Amino acid sequence: MPLPIHRLPVLILLSFLLQAQTVPLTGVIEQITSQQQLNLASGELKGQTVLKLSSLPAKTMRVYFPSNRILSQVSLGGQPLRFNHQGGFLTVFIEGKSSAPNTPQNMSLSYSSKQESVQGPSPLFELENYRLNFSLQTASGVFKAQSHFQLKGKKTATPGMPTLPAPRTIHLALNRVFTVEAVQSGGRALAFQHRQGQLRIQLPGPLTAGRLYSLDVRYSGKLPAGNKYQIWDTPFGGGPYYYPAHPLLPGAY
Q: What is the spatial distance between Cα 19 and Cα 28, in angstroms, rounded to a whole number?
């Protein structure tokens, strides 16, 4: 679960599922699950998303999909499908495929992309190796996510100035609509506060220069009605902060 860190492509998260069929979106796509990972050193994002379909459109299905992502495969029930990805829209050709009534089908999308900039503005720490798993129930807007990332301490000394103590707490941005259920480091529960869109985490010890802490943040909530499809930015956008991010600069860590 990557991935300004630049908003891919427009933050506020893409209406990943703007259906071009006459059938309402929530009547076709019941659930979206996704796994993404970002290598912050190289800027490479890799992901796989599964769409749970309640029924199959007759011939084609058209959904929004970020134009800067390179699709390697689209498959249905393990069988590759033909597709066309241009201008931020993905058209999948489903002719010849059929399913029994009321039998859900899983459509899988495998993709990658390259970020131009992946490091952020914090003077205290860098983020490394971000992974994100999430699921969205399209009808209800219920969103569940777990993010995993590493914090690496930076040098806090400035020539000619007193050395600052290594921080024992960090502050990240995470939208106030969510309830944070747990924050852990190496399986150990950490104390945290989530108020007014700010997530304050108490670390197991001081974040000295070069020290690494692995963090897991699990949270859930109901997305606002107008934003329930705006989940597709990546874990690295700012804006409404649907994923833990550095709060100093929207759209970047």
A: 9
